[in-house]
Amino acid sequence: MPARFLSGPRVNVHLGDLVHGSSLNGHLEALRGRSVLIATAEQLPAALALIEIDGIARRIVLWPSGAALEHLPFVIAAADVDVIVSDGTLLGQLETFGVASITCGTEIVPSNYGRLPRHSTEWILLTSGTTGRPKLVLHTLASLRGAIQAGSDLDAPSVWSTFYDIRRYGGLQIFLRAMLTGGSMVLSSAREPVAEFLMRAGAHCVSHISGTPSHWRQALMSPEAAKISPAYVRLSGEIADQSILDNLQSFYSQAKVAHAFASTEAGVAFDVRDGLAGFPAALIAEPNGPVELKVEDGTLRIRSGRVAAGYLDGERELADPEGFVDTGDVVELRGGRYYFAGRRDGTINVGGQKVHPEEVEAVINRHPRVRMSVVRPRKNPLVGALVVADVVLENGPEAAAGIETEILQLCRATLPQYKVPASIKFVTEVAVASTGKVVRQYA
Amino acid sequence: MTPESGHSQSGHKSIRSEILAQVKQVAQEQDKRLAPLTDDLPLLDSGLDSLCFAIVVARLEDALGIDPFSTAEDVGFPVTLGEFIRFYEHAGK
Lengths: 443, 93
What we know:
- The complex is a heterodimer.
- By secondary structure, chain A is an alpha/beta fold.
- Chain A is built from ten helices and 27 strands.
- Chain A has helices spanning 43-53, 72-78, 141-144, 169-180, 194-203, 213-221, 242-251, 282-285, 357-364, 403-414, and strands spanning 5-7, 12-14, 21-22, 35-39, 59-63, 83-86, 100-103, 109-110, 122-127, 135-140, 159-162, 184-186, 208-211, 232-235, 256-263, 267-272, 279-280, 291-296, 299-304, 310-311, 325-334, 337-343, 348-350, 353-355, 370-380, 384-393, 423-427.
- In chain A, strands 2-1-12-11-13-14-15-16 form an eight-stranded mixed sheet, sandwiched between helices.
- In chain A, helix 7 links the parallel strand 14 and strand 15.
- In chain A, helix 6 packs across helix 7.
- Chain A starts with a strand and ends in a 16-residue tail after the last strand.
- By secondary structure, chain B is mainly α.
- Chain B has one domain: Non-ribosomal Peptide Synthetase Peptidyl Carrier Protein, Chain A, CATH 1.10.1200.
- Chain B is 51% helix and 0% strand.
- Chain B has four helices and no strands.
- Chain B has helices at 13-29, 50-64, 68-71, 81-91.
- Chain A binds chain B through residues 350-351, 378, 380-383, 386, 408, 417-418, 422-423, and chain B through 29-30, 50-51, 53-55, 57-59, 62, 67, 69-70.
Protein backbone atom coordinates (compact mmCIF):
# COMPACT_ATOMS: atom_id res chain seq x y z
CA MET A 1 0.00 0.00 0.00
CA PRO A 2 1.68 3.18 -1.11
CA ALA A 3 2.10 5.86 1.52
CA ARG A 4 -0.32 8.78 1.46
CA PHE A 5 1.27 12.00 0.31
CA LEU A 6 0.73 15.64 -0.45
CA SER A 7 2.69 16.89 -3.43
CA GLY A 8 3.69 20.52 -3.99
CA PRO A 9 5.67 22.01 -6.85
CA ARG A 10 9.02 21.51 -5.14
CA VAL A 11 8.52 18.98 -2.36
CA ASN A 12 6.40 16.01 -1.35
CA VAL A 13 5.26 15.32 2.19
CA HIS A 14 4.22 11.96 3.60
CA LEU A 15 1.04 12.37 5.58
CA GLY A 16 2.07 9.66 7.99
CA ASP A 17 4.80 11.99 9.26
CA LEU A 18 2.11 14.31 10.60
CA VAL A 19 0.91 11.74 13.12
CA HIS A 20 3.89 12.42 15.34
CA GLY A 21 5.17 15.55 13.76
CA SER A 22 4.33 19.16 13.20
CA SER A 23 4.81 21.69 10.45
CA LEU A 24 4.24 24.44 13.00
CA ASN A 25 7.51 23.88 14.85
CA GLY A 26 5.53 22.42 17.74
CA HIS A 27 3.53 25.59 18.40
CA LEU A 28 0.14 23.99 17.94
CA GLU A 29 -1.04 24.37 21.56
CA ALA A 30 -0.69 28.15 21.28
CA LEU A 31 -3.53 28.01 18.78
CA ARG A 32 -5.99 26.16 20.98
CA GLY A 33 -9.32 27.96 21.07
CA ARG A 34 -7.98 30.81 18.94
CA SER A 35 -9.08 32.47 15.73
CA VAL A 36 -6.28 31.67 13.32
CA LEU A 37 -5.60 33.09 9.86
CA ILE A 38 -3.48 30.92 7.61
CA ALA A 39 -1.60 32.90 4.96
CA THR A 40 1.07 31.21 2.89
CA ALA A 41 2.30 31.74 -0.61
CA GLU A 42 2.12 28.07 -1.56
CA GLN A 43 -0.74 25.70 -0.84
CA LEU A 44 1.29 22.86 0.67
CA PRO A 45 2.25 24.53 3.96
CA ALA A 46 -1.35 25.76 4.29
CA ALA A 47 -2.63 22.21 3.77
CA LEU A 48 -0.33 20.83 6.48
CA ALA A 49 -1.32 23.61 8.86
CA LEU A 50 -5.03 22.96 8.20
CA ILE A 51 -4.68 19.29 9.04
CA GLU A 52 -2.99 20.09 12.33
CA ILE A 53 -5.08 23.06 13.37
CA ASP A 54 -8.59 21.78 12.65
CA GLY A 55 -10.20 20.74 15.90
CA ILE A 56 -7.74 22.79 17.92
CA ALA A 57 -8.47 26.38 16.86
CA ARG A 58 -12.01 27.69 17.25
CA ARG A 59 -11.80 29.35 13.87
CA ILE A 60 -9.59 29.08 10.80
CA VAL A 61 -9.55 31.85 8.18
CA LEU A 62 -8.21 30.76 4.81
CA TRP A 63 -6.30 33.51 3.04
CA PRO A 64 -5.98 32.61 -0.64
CA SER A 65 -3.03 33.77 -2.69
CA GLY A 66 -4.28 36.37 -5.11
CA ALA A 67 -6.32 38.12 -2.41
CA ALA A 68 -5.34 41.78 -2.14
CA LEU A 69 -3.35 42.58 1.00
CA GLU A 70 -5.26 45.83 1.46
CA HIS A 71 -8.20 43.75 2.69
CA LEU A 72 -6.19 41.97 5.38
CA PRO A 73 -6.90 44.47 8.19
CA PHE A 74 -10.62 44.24 7.44
CA VAL A 75 -10.53 40.44 7.50
CA ILE A 76 -8.52 40.38 10.73
CA ALA A 77 -11.07 42.66 12.38
CA ALA A 78 -14.17 40.96 10.97
CA ALA A 79 -12.93 37.47 11.93
CA ASP A 80 -11.41 38.45 15.30
CA VAL A 81 -8.11 36.96 14.27
CA ASP A 82 -5.75 36.30 17.21
CA VAL A 83 -2.87 34.65 15.40
CA ILE A 84 -1.54 34.53 11.87
CA VAL A 85 0.09 31.30 10.76
CA SER A 86 2.39 32.18 7.93
CA ASP A 87 5.32 30.80 5.97
CA GLY A 88 6.91 34.21 6.08
CA THR A 89 6.54 34.92 2.38
CA LEU A 90 3.14 36.38 1.74
CA LEU A 91 2.49 39.12 4.23
CA GLY A 92 5.64 41.12 4.73
CA GLN A 93 6.00 42.71 8.14
CA LEU A 94 3.57 40.81 10.34
CA GLU A 95 4.02 43.12 13.34
CA THR A 96 2.19 45.83 11.52
CA PHE A 97 -1.05 43.87 11.67
CA GLY A 98 -1.22 43.85 15.44
CA VAL A 99 -1.65 40.14 15.95
CA ALA A 100 0.67 37.36 17.07
CA SER A 101 2.22 35.14 14.45
CA ILE A 102 3.54 31.62 14.10
CA THR A 103 5.71 30.26 11.37
CA CYS A 104 4.80 27.19 9.40
CA GLY A 105 6.46 25.37 6.56
CA THR A 106 6.69 22.11 4.70
CA GLU A 107 9.27 20.54 6.94
CA ILE A 108 7.74 18.21 9.49
CA VAL A 109 9.49 18.20 12.83
CA PRO A 110 8.88 15.33 15.28
CA SER A 111 6.50 16.47 18.00
CA ASN A 112 5.32 14.52 20.98
CA TYR A 113 2.35 16.40 22.34
CA GLY A 114 -1.01 14.65 22.40
CA ARG A 115 -3.24 16.45 20.04
CA LEU A 116 -6.74 16.44 21.48
CA PRO A 117 -9.27 18.01 19.18
CA ARG A 118 -11.89 19.80 21.25
CA HIS A 119 -13.32 22.44 19.03
CA SER A 120 -15.70 22.14 16.16
CA THR A 121 -13.62 24.56 14.21
CA GLU A 122 -15.27 27.24 12.12
CA TRP A 123 -13.82 27.55 8.62
CA ILE A 124 -13.93 31.02 7.10
CA LEU A 125 -13.56 31.26 3.35
CA LEU A 126 -13.20 34.46 1.40
CA THR A 127 -15.31 35.10 -1.65
CA SER A 128 -15.37 38.19 -3.81
CA GLY A 129 -17.92 40.86 -3.01
CA THR A 130 -19.25 43.43 -5.47
CA THR A 131 -17.41 46.30 -3.80
CA GLY A 132 -14.02 44.63 -4.03
CA ARG A 133 -13.96 43.89 -0.32
CA PRO A 134 -14.18 40.12 0.23
CA LYS A 135 -17.15 38.50 1.92
CA LEU A 136 -16.30 36.13 4.76
CA VAL A 137 -18.32 32.96 4.50
CA LEU A 138 -18.68 30.82 7.61
CA HIS A 139 -18.60 27.03 7.27
CA THR A 140 -17.94 24.13 9.61
CA LEU A 141 -16.38 20.82 8.74
CA ALA A 142 -19.91 19.39 8.81
CA SER A 143 -21.18 21.72 6.08
CA LEU A 144 -17.94 21.40 4.13
CA ARG A 145 -17.87 17.61 4.13
CA GLY A 146 -21.58 17.16 3.48
CA ALA A 147 -21.11 16.11 -0.10
CA ILE A 148 -18.31 13.67 0.66
CA GLN A 149 -19.13 10.03 1.22
CA ALA A 150 -16.30 8.19 2.89
CA GLY A 151 -15.06 5.35 0.76
CA SER A 152 -17.44 5.91 -2.13
CA ASP A 153 -16.30 5.09 -5.66
CA LEU A 154 -12.98 3.99 -4.35
CA ASP A 155 -11.56 0.52 -4.43
CA ALA A 156 -7.98 1.69 -4.55
CA PRO A 157 -6.38 4.66 -2.82
CA SER A 158 -7.01 7.61 -5.04
CA VAL A 159 -4.72 10.43 -6.01
CA TRP A 160 -6.65 13.65 -6.19
CA SER A 161 -5.74 16.90 -7.79
CA THR A 162 -7.21 20.20 -8.78
CA PHE A 163 -6.18 23.31 -10.70
CA TYR A 164 -7.96 25.26 -7.98
CA ASP A 165 -6.33 26.81 -4.95
CA ILE A 166 -7.41 24.68 -1.97
CA ARG A 167 -8.04 27.82 0.05
CA ARG A 168 -11.06 28.55 -2.11
CA TYR A 169 -14.22 26.48 -1.89
CA GLY A 170 -13.77 24.52 -5.11
CA GLY A 171 -10.25 23.47 -4.18
CA LEU A 172 -11.05 22.91 -0.53
CA GLN A 173 -13.72 20.38 -1.49
CA ILE A 174 -11.13 18.32 -3.36
CA PHE A 175 -8.62 18.61 -0.51
CA LEU A 176 -11.23 17.40 1.99
CA ARG A 177 -12.30 14.61 -0.29
CA ALA A 178 -8.72 13.41 -0.53
CA MET A 179 -8.00 13.70 3.18
CA LEU A 180 -11.28 12.19 4.41
CA THR A 181 -11.32 9.23 2.05
CA GLY A 182 -7.79 7.97 2.60
CA GLY A 183 -6.33 9.48 -0.55
CA SER A 184 -3.33 11.53 -1.58
CA MET A 185 -3.25 14.84 -3.35
CA VAL A 186 -1.21 16.76 -5.87
CA LEU A 187 -1.54 20.45 -5.09
CA SER A 188 -1.31 23.06 -7.84
CA SER A 189 0.62 26.32 -7.60
CA ALA A 190 -0.07 29.78 -8.95
CA ARG A 191 3.59 30.07 -9.87
CA GLU A 192 3.83 26.79 -11.73
CA PRO A 193 3.07 26.77 -15.46
CA VAL A 194 0.17 24.56 -16.47
CA ALA A 195 2.46 22.28 -18.47
CA GLU A 196 4.64 21.50 -15.46
CA PHE A 197 1.64 20.96 -13.22
CA LEU A 198 0.21 18.46 -15.70
CA MET A 199 3.52 16.60 -15.89
CA ARG A 200 3.78 16.47 -12.10
CA ALA A 201 0.18 15.31 -11.74
CA GLY A 202 0.76 12.65 -14.37
CA ALA A 203 3.95 11.48 -12.68
CA HIS A 204 1.94 10.94 -9.47
CA CYS A 205 -0.74 8.99 -11.35
CA VAL A 206 -3.59 11.34 -10.60
CA SER A 207 -6.93 9.53 -10.73
CA HIS A 208 -9.38 12.33 -9.91
CA ILE A 209 -8.80 15.87 -11.14
CA SER A 210 -11.01 18.93 -11.10
CA GLY A 211 -10.98 22.51 -12.32
CA THR A 212 -13.05 25.23 -13.86
CA PRO A 213 -13.94 25.05 -17.56
CA SER A 214 -11.36 27.80 -18.11
CA HIS A 215 -8.69 25.71 -16.32
CA TRP A 216 -9.57 22.79 -18.56
CA ARG A 217 -9.54 24.84 -21.76
CA GLN A 218 -6.07 26.06 -20.86
CA ALA A 219 -4.98 22.50 -20.06
CA LEU A 220 -6.22 21.22 -23.42
CA MET A 221 -4.14 23.92 -25.11
CA SER A 222 -1.03 22.59 -23.39
CA PRO A 223 1.13 19.97 -25.13
CA GLU A 224 1.29 18.18 -21.75
CA ALA A 225 -2.45 17.58 -21.57
CA ALA A 226 -1.83 13.94 -22.47
CA LYS A 227 0.54 13.47 -19.51
CA ILE A 228 -2.40 12.73 -17.22
CA SER A 229 -4.83 9.86 -17.62
CA PRO A 230 -7.41 10.38 -14.92
CA ALA A 231 -10.33 8.09 -14.24
CA TYR A 232 -12.47 11.05 -13.20
CA VAL A 233 -12.50 14.54 -14.70
CA ARG A 234 -14.58 17.14 -12.91
CA LEU A 235 -15.62 20.69 -13.78
CA SER A 236 -17.16 23.36 -11.57
CA GLY A 237 -17.10 27.08 -10.89
CA GLU A 238 -18.20 28.29 -14.31
CA ILE A 239 -20.82 27.21 -16.81
CA ALA A 240 -19.66 24.02 -18.51
CA ASP A 241 -20.75 24.36 -22.13
CA GLN A 242 -21.29 21.38 -24.40
CA SER A 243 -18.04 22.03 -26.27
CA ILE A 244 -15.75 21.68 -23.26
CA LEU A 245 -17.63 18.59 -22.08
CA ASP A 246 -17.30 16.99 -25.52
CA ASN A 247 -13.65 18.01 -25.92
CA LEU A 248 -12.71 16.59 -22.52
CA GLN A 249 -14.56 13.32 -23.07
CA SER A 250 -12.94 12.94 -26.43
CA PHE A 251 -9.44 13.74 -25.16
CA TYR A 252 -9.66 11.68 -21.98
CA SER A 253 -11.69 8.92 -23.50
CA GLN A 254 -11.14 6.57 -20.55
CA ALA A 255 -12.39 9.07 -18.00
CA LYS A 256 -15.79 9.76 -16.56
CA VAL A 257 -16.48 13.45 -17.07
CA ALA A 258 -18.85 15.23 -14.70
CA HIS A 259 -19.67 18.83 -13.97
CA ALA A 260 -20.79 20.06 -10.57
CA PHE A 261 -22.70 23.04 -9.36
CA ALA A 262 -21.36 24.57 -6.18
CA SER A 263 -20.68 27.94 -4.65
CA THR A 264 -18.88 29.11 -1.55
CA GLU A 265 -22.19 30.09 0.01
CA ALA A 266 -24.48 27.34 -1.22
CA GLY A 267 -22.04 24.47 -1.01
CA VAL A 268 -22.02 21.53 -3.39
CA ALA A 269 -25.49 21.17 -4.86
CA PHE A 270 -25.35 18.46 -7.47
CA ASP A 271 -23.29 17.01 -10.19
CA VAL A 272 -24.21 15.99 -13.70
CA ARG A 273 -22.76 12.83 -15.21
CA ASP A 274 -24.78 12.38 -18.38
CA GLY A 275 -22.32 14.25 -20.57
CA LEU A 276 -24.71 17.08 -21.32
CA ALA A 277 -24.56 20.73 -20.34
CA GLY A 278 -27.15 21.98 -17.88
CA PHE A 279 -29.11 19.61 -15.66
CA PRO A 280 -32.31 17.57 -15.95
CA ALA A 281 -35.53 19.33 -14.97
CA ALA A 282 -36.25 16.36 -12.73
CA LEU A 283 -33.71 17.70 -10.23
CA ILE A 284 -36.08 20.59 -9.58
CA ALA A 285 -39.37 18.83 -10.05
CA GLU A 286 -38.65 15.80 -7.90
CA PRO A 287 -36.90 16.82 -4.73
CA ASN A 288 -35.01 14.02 -3.13
CA GLY A 289 -31.92 13.76 -1.11
CA PRO A 290 -30.13 16.28 0.99
CA VAL A 291 -30.20 19.21 -1.41
CA GLU A 292 -33.34 21.15 -2.30
CA LEU A 293 -33.41 23.19 -5.49
CA LYS A 294 -35.88 25.68 -6.81
CA VAL A 295 -36.01 28.35 -9.49
CA GLU A 296 -37.38 31.73 -8.50
CA ASP A 297 -37.31 34.94 -10.51
CA GLY A 298 -35.25 33.07 -13.06
CA THR A 299 -32.36 32.15 -10.76
CA LEU A 300 -31.43 28.91 -9.04
CA ARG A 301 -31.97 28.68 -5.25
CA ILE A 302 -30.44 26.04 -2.99
CA ARG A 303 -31.12 24.77 0.51
CA SER A 304 -29.10 22.00 2.16
CA GLY A 305 -26.93 21.07 5.09
CA ARG A 306 -23.94 22.10 3.03
CA VAL A 307 -24.99 25.73 2.90
CA ALA A 308 -22.71 28.05 4.82
CA ALA A 309 -23.91 29.28 8.18
CA GLY A 310 -23.69 32.92 7.20
CA TYR A 311 -21.49 35.86 6.40
CA LEU A 312 -19.19 36.95 9.20
CA ASP A 313 -19.66 40.65 8.92
CA GLY A 314 -23.41 40.24 9.15
CA GLU A 315 -24.07 42.91 6.58
CA ARG A 316 -26.42 40.84 4.58
CA GLU A 317 -28.26 37.58 4.88
CA LEU A 318 -26.71 34.64 3.13
CA ALA A 319 -30.03 32.81 2.78
CA ASP A 320 -33.69 33.86 2.69
CA PRO A 321 -35.96 33.29 5.72
CA GLU A 322 -36.62 29.74 4.54
CA GLY A 323 -32.94 28.95 4.26
CA PHE A 324 -32.61 29.08 0.47
CA VAL A 325 -29.49 30.69 -0.98
CA ASP A 326 -29.95 32.66 -4.19
CA THR A 327 -27.04 31.59 -6.36
CA GLY A 328 -27.48 34.53 -8.73
CA ASP A 329 -27.22 32.13 -11.66
CA VAL A 330 -29.90 32.51 -14.32
CA VAL A 331 -31.33 29.22 -15.59
CA GLU A 332 -33.54 28.57 -18.61
CA LEU A 333 -35.76 25.58 -19.20
CA ARG A 334 -35.58 24.05 -22.68
CA GLY A 335 -36.83 20.63 -23.63
CA GLY A 336 -36.97 19.16 -20.15
CA ARG A 337 -33.54 20.43 -19.20
CA TYR A 338 -32.29 23.53 -17.41
CA TYR A 339 -29.37 25.38 -18.91
CA PHE A 340 -27.25 28.00 -17.19
CA ALA A 341 -27.53 31.29 -19.06
CA GLY A 342 -25.17 33.38 -16.96
CA ARG A 343 -25.02 35.60 -13.90
CA ARG A 344 -28.04 37.76 -13.13
CA ASP A 345 -25.80 40.78 -12.63
CA GLY A 346 -23.54 39.95 -15.54
CA THR A 347 -25.55 40.92 -18.59
CA ILE A 348 -24.57 43.26 -21.41
CA ASN A 349 -27.34 45.72 -22.29
CA VAL A 350 -27.63 46.20 -26.06
CA GLY A 351 -30.30 48.78 -26.78
CA GLY A 352 -32.41 47.52 -23.89
CA GLN A 353 -31.93 43.84 -24.72
CA LYS A 354 -29.92 41.73 -22.30
CA VAL A 355 -27.12 39.47 -23.43
CA HIS A 356 -25.38 36.91 -21.25
CA PRO A 357 -21.74 36.73 -22.35
CA GLU A 358 -21.59 33.02 -21.50
CA GLU A 359 -24.37 32.22 -23.94
CA VAL A 360 -22.51 33.82 -26.85
CA GLU A 361 -19.23 32.20 -25.78
CA ALA A 362 -20.92 28.79 -25.83
CA VAL A 363 -21.84 29.33 -29.48
CA ILE A 364 -18.41 30.66 -30.47
CA ASN A 365 -16.79 27.70 -28.69
CA ARG A 366 -18.64 25.33 -31.00
CA HIS A 367 -16.33 26.21 -33.85
CA PRO A 368 -13.81 23.35 -33.99
CA ARG A 369 -10.77 25.66 -34.15
CA VAL A 370 -11.79 27.75 -31.16
CA ARG A 371 -10.08 26.91 -27.85
CA MET A 372 -11.45 29.69 -25.64
CA SER A 373 -13.44 32.86 -25.98
CA VAL A 374 -14.60 35.74 -23.86
CA VAL A 375 -17.40 38.12 -24.73
CA ARG A 376 -17.24 41.70 -23.48
CA PRO A 377 -19.28 44.86 -23.78
CA ARG A 378 -18.02 47.65 -26.01
CA LYS A 379 -19.51 51.03 -25.08
CA ASN A 380 -21.61 52.53 -27.84
CA PRO A 381 -23.29 55.94 -28.06
CA LEU A 382 -26.33 54.70 -29.99
CA VAL A 383 -27.32 51.50 -28.15
CA GLY A 384 -25.35 51.68 -24.90
CA ALA A 385 -23.17 48.69 -25.56
CA LEU A 386 -22.33 46.24 -28.33
CA VAL A 387 -21.19 42.67 -27.92
CA VAL A 388 -17.59 41.98 -28.95
CA ALA A 389 -15.50 38.84 -28.56
CA ASP A 390 -11.88 37.87 -27.96
CA VAL A 391 -11.13 34.43 -29.36
CA VAL A 392 -8.19 32.05 -28.90
CA LEU A 393 -7.68 29.73 -31.85
CA GLU A 394 -6.09 26.31 -31.99
CA ASN A 395 -3.06 27.41 -33.95
CA GLY A 396 -2.83 30.98 -32.77
CA PRO A 397 -4.16 34.25 -34.15
CA GLU A 398 -2.18 33.87 -37.37
CA ALA A 399 -4.50 31.05 -38.37
CA ALA A 400 -7.50 33.36 -38.37
CA ALA A 401 -8.09 33.81 -42.09
CA GLY A 402 -11.68 32.93 -42.94
CA ILE A 403 -12.47 31.73 -39.42
CA GLU A 404 -13.97 35.05 -38.37
CA THR A 405 -16.61 34.69 -41.07
CA GLU A 406 -17.31 31.11 -40.03
CA ILE A 407 -17.69 32.07 -36.38
CA LEU A 408 -20.04 34.93 -37.23
CA GLN A 409 -22.12 32.64 -39.45
CA LEU A 410 -22.34 30.16 -36.58
CA CYS A 411 -23.52 32.96 -34.30
CA ARG A 412 -26.04 34.33 -36.80
CA ALA A 413 -27.52 30.88 -37.30
CA THR A 414 -28.16 30.46 -33.58
CA LEU A 415 -28.49 33.87 -31.96
CA PRO A 416 -30.64 36.95 -32.49
CA GLN A 417 -28.90 39.87 -34.16
CA TYR A 418 -28.13 41.87 -31.02
CA LYS A 419 -26.24 38.93 -29.48
CA VAL A 420 -23.95 38.38 -32.46
CA PRO A 421 -20.51 39.93 -31.83
CA ALA A 422 -20.08 43.21 -33.70
CA SER A 423 -16.39 42.42 -33.93
CA ILE A 424 -14.03 39.58 -33.12
CA LYS A 425 -10.43 39.95 -32.03
CA PHE A 426 -8.12 36.96 -32.21
CA VAL A 427 -5.86 36.84 -29.17
CA THR A 428 -3.21 34.51 -27.79
CA GLU A 429 -4.83 34.13 -24.38
CA VAL A 430 -7.80 35.08 -22.27
CA ALA A 431 -7.29 36.51 -18.78
CA VAL A 432 -8.20 33.97 -16.09
CA ALA A 433 -8.25 35.06 -12.43
CA SER A 434 -6.65 33.21 -9.52
CA THR A 435 -10.11 31.75 -8.87
CA GLY A 436 -9.88 29.95 -12.21
CA LYS A 437 -12.68 32.01 -13.68
CA VAL A 438 -12.50 34.22 -16.75
CA VAL A 439 -11.99 37.87 -15.85
CA ARG A 440 -15.12 39.73 -16.88
CA GLN A 441 -15.97 43.38 -17.30
CA TYR A 442 -19.55 44.50 -17.21
CA ALA A 443 -21.00 47.61 -18.77
CA MET B 1 -24.54 50.35 -56.44
CA THR B 2 -26.12 53.80 -56.26
CA PRO B 3 -24.97 57.22 -57.35
CA GLU B 4 -23.35 59.08 -54.49
CA SER B 5 -24.52 62.63 -54.55
CA GLY B 6 -22.78 65.66 -53.29
CA HIS B 7 -19.48 67.35 -53.57
CA SER B 8 -16.21 65.84 -52.60
CA GLN B 9 -13.94 68.35 -50.97
CA SER B 10 -10.42 67.14 -50.81
CA GLY B 11 -9.57 66.03 -47.29
CA HIS B 12 -13.16 65.02 -46.66
CA LYS B 13 -13.30 62.54 -49.45
CA SER B 14 -11.85 59.73 -47.37
CA ILE B 15 -14.34 60.21 -44.54
CA ARG B 16 -17.29 60.18 -46.94
CA SER B 17 -16.11 57.13 -48.78
CA GLU B 18 -15.25 55.31 -45.53
CA ILE B 19 -18.74 55.95 -44.17
CA LEU B 20 -20.41 54.74 -47.33
CA ALA B 21 -18.19 51.66 -47.44
CA GLN B 22 -19.01 50.75 -43.84
CA VAL B 23 -22.73 51.28 -44.39
CA LYS B 24 -22.67 48.91 -47.35
CA GLN B 25 -20.51 46.38 -45.47
CA VAL B 26 -22.80 46.27 -42.45
CA ALA B 27 -25.89 46.05 -44.68
CA GLN B 28 -24.37 43.05 -46.40
CA GLU B 29 -23.36 41.32 -43.14
CA GLN B 30 -26.72 41.92 -41.53
CA ASP B 31 -28.60 40.97 -44.68
CA LYS B 32 -30.40 44.30 -45.02
CA ARG B 33 -31.54 45.88 -48.25
CA LEU B 34 -30.20 49.40 -48.60
CA ALA B 35 -32.15 52.30 -50.05
CA PRO B 36 -30.30 54.44 -52.62
CA LEU B 37 -27.59 56.29 -50.67
CA THR B 38 -28.30 59.95 -51.35
CA ASP B 39 -27.42 62.80 -48.99
CA ASP B 40 -31.06 63.56 -48.31
CA LEU B 41 -31.92 59.96 -47.41
CA PRO B 42 -33.36 59.88 -43.90
CA LEU B 43 -31.35 57.40 -41.85
CA LEU B 44 -34.56 55.81 -40.59
CA ASP B 45 -35.45 54.92 -44.19
CA SER B 46 -32.04 53.60 -45.13
CA GLY B 47 -32.84 49.94 -44.42
CA LEU B 48 -30.47 49.83 -41.45
CA ASP B 49 -31.84 49.67 -37.90
CA SER B 50 -30.30 51.26 -34.81
CA LEU B 51 -28.21 48.19 -34.07
CA CYS B 52 -26.75 48.34 -37.60
CA PHE B 53 -25.89 52.01 -37.16
CA ALA B 54 -24.36 51.25 -33.79
CA ILE B 55 -22.06 48.77 -35.53
CA VAL B 56 -21.27 51.31 -38.27
CA VAL B 57 -20.36 53.87 -35.60
CA ALA B 58 -18.09 51.35 -33.86
CA ARG B 59 -16.37 50.40 -37.12
CA LEU B 60 -15.91 54.07 -38.04
CA GLU B 61 -14.29 54.68 -34.67
CA ASP B 62 -11.82 51.90 -35.42
CA ALA B 63 -11.21 53.08 -38.98
CA LEU B 64 -11.15 56.86 -38.50
CA GLY B 65 -10.31 57.20 -34.81
CA ILE B 66 -13.29 59.46 -34.16
CA ASP B 67 -16.68 59.01 -32.49
CA PRO B 68 -18.54 62.31 -32.81
CA PHE B 69 -21.61 60.89 -31.04
CA SER B 70 -19.60 60.56 -27.86
CA THR B 71 -17.52 63.70 -28.15
CA ALA B 72 -19.90 66.28 -29.62
CA GLU B 73 -21.55 68.55 -27.09
CA ASP B 74 -25.08 69.76 -27.25
CA VAL B 75 -25.69 68.69 -30.80
CA GLY B 76 -28.68 67.21 -32.54
CA PHE B 77 -28.27 63.77 -33.96
CA PRO B 78 -28.02 63.69 -37.75
CA VAL B 79 -31.30 62.87 -39.47
CA THR B 80 -30.16 62.30 -43.04
CA LEU B 81 -27.20 60.49 -44.49
CA GLY B 82 -25.72 63.81 -45.62
CA GLU B 83 -25.95 65.18 -42.08
CA PHE B 84 -24.34 62.00 -40.79
CA ILE B 85 -21.42 62.44 -43.18
CA ARG B 86 -21.01 66.13 -42.32
CA PHE B 87 -21.20 65.19 -38.62
CA TYR B 88 -18.10 63.05 -39.09
CA GLU B 89 -16.33 65.46 -41.42
CA HIS B 90 -16.82 68.20 -38.85
CA ALA B 91 -15.43 66.03 -36.06
CA GLY B 92 -12.55 64.96 -38.20
CA LYS B 93 -11.23 68.50 -38.58
